[in-house]
Write a structure and sequence with these properties.
The chain is an alpha+beta fold and 321 residues long. Helices cover 22% and strands 31% of the residues. It is globular. The N and C termini lie far apart (39 Å).
Amino acid sequence: MPKIESIRQIPGIFAGHATDAEAATGCTVIVCPAGATGAVDVRGGAPATRETDLLRPEETVQEVHAIVLSGGSAFGLAASTGVAEELERRGIGLDVMVAKVPIVSGACLFDLACGSATVRPDAAMGAAAVTDAFEHADEPLPRGNVGAGAGCTVGKVAGPARSMKTGFGERVMQAGDLVCGAVTAVNAVGNVVDPATGHPVAGVISADGSSIISVQEAFAEAAAEMPLRTNTTISCIVTNAKLDKAQATKVAQMSADAYAHAIRPTHTTNDGDSIFVLATGEVEAQVDMVGMLATAALENAIVDAAETAVSAYGYTAACDL
């Protein structure tokens, strides 16, 4: 198999963004028109999600047509409605004889404090993301201040003045014919670190603006309190592996280790951390191998979200620190 560098290159997968750069919000959609095995792992204490119960292994629906990652906090769930409506217009969905019902799951992050608090992803933006996915299928998927990553920030322990800009990241890992890609919008309360070295990439800026300090140091320095429920990292693993729902759920659970490796702290009471899995079923693969590749891809996608973001809305990005 040729080297794959974007989930857009995985057969049967389409991905796109809709971005409101002025308002600092947007959404990202990953579409599998033929349907894929879906799963989710939710570890954050304050998630905003849609149709996650449907992805449990014991539930009867076996295919998913789209995953939506959105800004807008709970308001952003409206984007998923637009995705479902646009997929129906395109004849994509679960055939229930009288209609085709697109199975659309997703999660939202809190970006209301970045840009405009009154502009959120809506149904029109969700539909636009689907259109982008199909119209730009042959192009690399944009990263940085786009889609669900448009209003992402990290390092909020010491308040917004000491936070940094992050965004949307992507990374793909391969082992022979097996492909595991990860996309993520990183909006964590803590710091992003390079999992290979432990060095900080983005997070709490020091008082003099010259470096990134640890979250523990920020607490000690400022007696800081984590901002309530204003954080969340939402991600999707896309793989060509053949998995059933239970196996895909295990891959989602294993992939959550990537958060612990690259974000400190993570899975807090004030995050809504969630990871989805879409498996297209093209390649026979051992579940643990899929999980290891997916974890590595997501670790690097998290770092990519910090490194490809650019300074905006008063927040400094890693490229300018």
